[in-house]
């Protein structure tokens, strides 16, 4: 069987147990590695967490290759497949996935390995294209702007009413999340959605007895 025939079989027909050869396995691994490398690059491009986890990103293509190898092995013998199921059933993964997008990429890599190992690489390619378009489109659409946290520190607690007047003037949404009050001090944490960020902070600082005013972005849940 020529390389062209193997590629055609890999993309459209799937592998039969008797059809596995060194060339077939090599083609499967090359296709898996190419798609896995694409996932690696895409994850690095759209990752927006404060601390980029390089080890997690490296694990994504590794998982795709490992999964493809397992699927190829399972096809060679029912006895091996039963043994593999028994061996994998005792594995427990306890690493917490904090970002939902990390879970998407993790499942994406495993799925690529399964599909390519089964000999239907065209499905992996099409799914990867559709996922990429969906992720980038959803990320680009201005569905909602995440709120920010406004931290205001005043040396007199009587300033709260004036602070809230300015916040109401600039913010389409505002909600007091925390208020720390002492005899001669006021600290406020206010969830806001504001366009003119600099103007809001400058007008707050123009008030008498305001010690500091800080506007902090966060990636928490969006309040509508």
Task: Report on this structure.
The chain is built from 8 helices and 4 strands; from the N terminus they run H-H-H-H-H-H-E-H-E-E-H-E. The model has no long low-confidence stretch (mean pLDDT 78). By secondary structure, it is of the alpha+beta class. Helix 1 crosses helix 2 (22-46), helix 2 (22-46) runs antiparallel to helix 3 and helix 2 (22-46) packs antiparallel against helix 5. The termini are far apart. Strands 2-3-1-4 form a 4-stranded antiparallel β-sheet.
Short description:
With 224 residues, the chain is of the alpha+beta class. The chain is built from eight helices and four strands; from the N terminus they run ααααααβαββαβ.
Main β-sheet, spatial strand arrangement:
2-3-1-4
Q: How much is the average pLDDT?
A: 78
SS-derived structural category: alpha+beta
Ends distance: 60 Å
The low-confidence runs, each spanning 5 or more residues with pLDDT under 50, are none
Q: What percent of residues adopt helix (DSSP H or I)?
A: 55-70%
**How are helices and strands ordered from N to C?**
HHHHHHEHEEHE
Instruction: Name the shape in a single word.
Output: elongated
Radius of gyration: 27 Å
**Number of helices in the DSSP assignment:** 8
Name the descriptors:
58% helix; 224 residues; alpha+beta; 17% strand
């Amino acid at each position: 069987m020529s390389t062209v025939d193997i590629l055609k079989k890999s993309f459209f027909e799937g592998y039969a147990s008797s059809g596995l050869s060194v060339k077939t396995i090599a083609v499967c691994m090359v296709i898996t590695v190419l798609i896995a490398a694409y996932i690696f690059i895409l994850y690095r491009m759209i990752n927006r967490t404060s601390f980029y986890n390089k080890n997690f990103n490296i694990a994504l293509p590794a998982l795709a290759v490992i999964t493809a190898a397992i699927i190829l092995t399972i096809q060679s013998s029912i006895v091996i497949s039963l043994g593999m199921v028994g061996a994998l059933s005792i594995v427990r993964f306890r690493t917490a996935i904090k970002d939902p997008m990390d879970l998407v990429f993790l499942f994406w890599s495993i799925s690529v390995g399964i599909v390519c190992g089964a000999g239907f690489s065209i499905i992996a390619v099409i799914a990867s294209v559709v996922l990429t378009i969906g992720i980038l489109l959803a990320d680009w659409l201005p569905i909602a702007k995440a709120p920010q946290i406004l931290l205001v520190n005043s040396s007199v607690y009587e300033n709260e009413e004036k602070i809230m007047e300015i916040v109401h003037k600039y913010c389409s949404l505002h909600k007091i999340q925390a208020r720390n009050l002492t005899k001669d001090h006021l600290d406020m944490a206010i969830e806001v959605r504001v366009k003119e960020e600099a103007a809001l902070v400058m007008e707050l600082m123009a008030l008498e007895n305001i010690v500091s005013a800080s506007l902090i972005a966060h990636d928490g849940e969006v309040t509508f």
